[in-house]
Structures are given as structure tokens and as C-alpha cells.
TrEMBL record, chains A, B:
<dbReference type="Pfam" id="PF02082">
    <property type="entry name" value="Rrf2"/>
</dbReference>
<dbReference type="GO" id="GO:0003700">
    <property type="term" value="F:DNA-binding transcription factor activity"/>
</dbReference>
<dbReference type="InterPro" id="IPR036388">
    <property type="entry name" value="WH-like_DNA-bd_sf"/>
</dbReference>
<dbReference type="InterPro" id="IPR000944">
    <property type="entry name" value="Tscrpt_reg_Rrf2"/>
</dbReference>
<protein>
    <submittedName>
        <fullName>BadM/Rrf2 family transcriptional regulator</fullName>
    </submittedName>
</protein>
<dbReference type="GO" id="GO:0005829">
    <property type="term" value="C:cytosol"/>
</dbReference>
<dbReference type="InterPro" id="IPR036390">
    <property type="entry name" value="WH_DNA-bd_sf"/>
</dbReference>
Length: 136, 136
DNA sequence: CATTCTGTAATTGACTTTATTACAGTACAA
DNA sequence: TTGTACTGTAATAAAGTCAATTACAGAATG
């Protein structure tokens, strides 16, 4: 994964899991993560599109989990923030006249798929509730 | 992994494995990958530090594998290019006054280590020779 | 000793990510 | 019904990252 969005999204969800039911404001969340509130709202918007978060506009509004923390797998969080490939995106444009260059992206892609499968298998095993449980 | 260095290093090593014994110039390699020769030399320099490549300066110089392709595990390549953490580096500076923020980097790091372990396990199983064997 | 390489530093440029500004719209509460 | 406190989102600016490029010293060869 290429971005810092995974930790941000997981932080957001962890905060919500730790205060289940309450609506948290983007300003409060941004204060905990120490980033800009607009970025928090963007991530919340994304997580909402993936059915992990519900939010409420207006005064006393905010966001909360859309389902209980033990129903949220970390693999869902991964999918929600995942855009590019795990290990360096195959955006390289190798020389098609070279016998190695011509084929390497195909084989790299296979390798990445294999590895990403292993990664997802791990993330699948841990729920947000499991993750929160580590905090004391 | 955050960078495009893994595919570049693997490409370099694959070229060398496919023409075992020969010294390849950074210009030739750069032509196959379609990147700048200086970047190739930087990667070669790094791979040499990890004992995967030997190089020779001067006219008719170049680089070649330091050991046979079936002795090189892809996990070694990963280690050679790995600097930052796999999933978004914990460069966030969460608020230490927040009970979640205070602890989250620790738990994120544990999670990353766990996942990286799974990834390395996969890469450990494949040698450079295995990777090259896929090419026909 | 000219040539062809590596090795490496320094700079520039392209791109990506995050912060910031701005503002419309929504819900609540006095 | 109006002020306030929020979300949602777009647009822009600032910061950071990564690769390309330039430059050049040094090594090996013929």
C-alpha cells in the first residue's frame, strides 16, 4: 500500500469504536490524529461509501460506526483505502524490445497478487474490535 | 512497500540472471527498464551492499550476480530496498493527550510487523531462479 | 593516453499528498 | 426564525517525494 490513508482510516475507526454510539466531530478526530479536519472529512466520506461509517450533518452532527466493531474486518479498511498496488505499482514502461522487459510486468503482477492475498488473509483475521482490545 | 525500487531491483537482477556471468552495463539495463542509468547505478550500488551483485569499474565494466540465481531469495531483494514500513509509514504524530492517539502508533507497528512477516514468508519461498523460470 | 565504463553528489523538474481557504447546505436550539 | 455548529465538497496553495538530469572524478582497458 502506497499511502498514509490506511493508518488515518484505522485511527478514525478506532476512535469511533472506543466511544461507540457517540457522534464524533471531524475537528475532534483531526485533533487526535493531528491532521487537517478536511482530510478527516474526506476519509469519513470514503469510509461511508464503503458502509463502515454513518454521519450526520448539522449542529451536534458527526460520525459513528455503521456497524459494531466486531463486524468490521481490517481487510475492509484496506479495501476502502486501497487504490494502487501494494508493492510499487507497475507503472514502469519497460522496453518491449527486450525479452525480459517485455514480460516482466506480467510476472510482477502475479507476484503482487500472490503477496496481496497473503496480506489480506492476515487483515481478514483481525476485526476492529480485536484491534481496539489491544489498547488499555 | 512504498516505492518503485523493488520492481527496479528485481528487473536488474532478472536481467543478470538471464545472462549469467556476463557483465551488464548500466546503460544497457536502463534501456531495458526504461529509466535513467544513474538510477540503475544507484540501485546496483545498493544491491552490492547487500551482497547480491558484484560490479567492475572502468572500460568493459559492468555488473553481474554475486551468487547464483537459485541462491537469491526474493526476500533478500525486499530487504535490500526496504526502508519505510509496508503500510503507510508511522510518520503520523498523533496527539499524545488522546488515549487512542497516544498508543496507536505502537499497535500499528505491531500490525505492520505481523503483515510484513506474512509477506516475507511468501518472498522467502521464491528464488530469483524461480522468478526467471516463469519467462519463456 | 584516449575511451568507456562506474560511483556519487548536486540540482532540477514532475508528481503526489496534505493543508488551507472558502462556502453552500443541514440540523438543532434558543 | 435566526444564530450557531456542524458536514460536504471544491479549489488552491504549500510541502514533500521521487526520478531525471547534469556534472565530474576515478578506474580499467586497449
Amino acid at each position: 500500500m502506497n499511502n498514509g490513508r490506511f493508518p488515518i482510516s484505522l485511527h478514525i475507526l478506532t476512535l469511533m469504536a472506543s466511544s461507540a454510539g457517540e457522534l464524533l466531530s471531524s475537528d475532534y478526530i483531526a485533533g487526535s490524529i493531528n491532521i487537517n479536519p478536511v482530510l478527516v472529512r474526506k476519509e469519513i466520506s470514503n469510509l461511508r461509501n464503503f458502509g463502515l461509517i454513518e454521519s450526520k450533518e448539522g449542529k451536534n452532527g458527526g460520525a459513528t460506526l455503521a456497524k459494531s466493531a466486531d463486524k468490521i474486518r481490517l481487510s475492509e479498511v484496506y479495501h476502502a483505502v486501497q487504490q494502487a498496488s501494494l508493492l510499487g505499482n507497475s507503472k514502469n514502461k519497460p522496453n518491449p524490445d527486450c525479452p525480459i522487459g517485455k514480460q516482466i510486468n506480467l510476472h510482477l503482477d502475479h507476484l503482487y497478487e500472490d503477496i496481496e492475498g497473503a496480506l489480506l488473509h492476515r487483515l481478514e483475521k483481525m476485526s476492529l474490535a480485536d484491534f481496539l482490545r489491544q489498547f488499555q
